[in-house]
Amino acid sequence: MPKLTVENVGTFDVPAGKRLIKALVEEAGTDQLHACGGVSRCTTCRVEFVEGEPEQITAAEKETLRVREVTEPGVRLSCQINCDQDMTVRVISRLEGSGRKDQGGAVADEIEPAPEWTTK
Which InterPro entries match (predicted)? Predict the structure, then answer.
């Protein structure tokens, strides 16, 4: 079972293959945003990887990051990542202080849209 460490929150066992956005909310109890419901249309689910950033990226995530001009090293969309290895992240897009009424819509168990894997 992979370990997810969330800075200033703790370390949690996460079922292998679980979407990072779901692990951040369900296991870690964070207020991580996901306004589009986890379908790579926005960038509200951004996290910054401290350790364990996956080498692969979905084509949808790559395109969303490009279009939204998110270029910071290690910043990824938690809705497009599966917890397949130990990782340490910093939550950088939270409900607190965002002015939004909630974190976002329900997130499917599987990555949406269907992932086409590529390299960063």
Answer: 2Fe-2S_ferredoxin-like_sf (IPR036010), 2Fe-2S_ferredoxin-type (IPR001041), Adrenodoxin-like (IPR001055), Beta-grasp_dom_sf (IPR012675)
Phi, psi of 84 (to 5 degrees): -110, 0
Q: What is the pTM of this model?
A: 0.96
Q: Tell whether 82 is covered by a domain.
A: yes
Q: Residue-wise pLDDT tens for the chain (120 aa)? A: 999 999 999 999 999 999 999 999 999 999 999 999 999 999 999 999 999 999 999 999 999 999 999 999 999 999 999 999 999 999 999 999 999 999 999 999 999 999 999 998
Considering the domain boundaries, does residue 76 fall inside one? yes
The CATH number covering residue 51 comes to 3.10.20.30
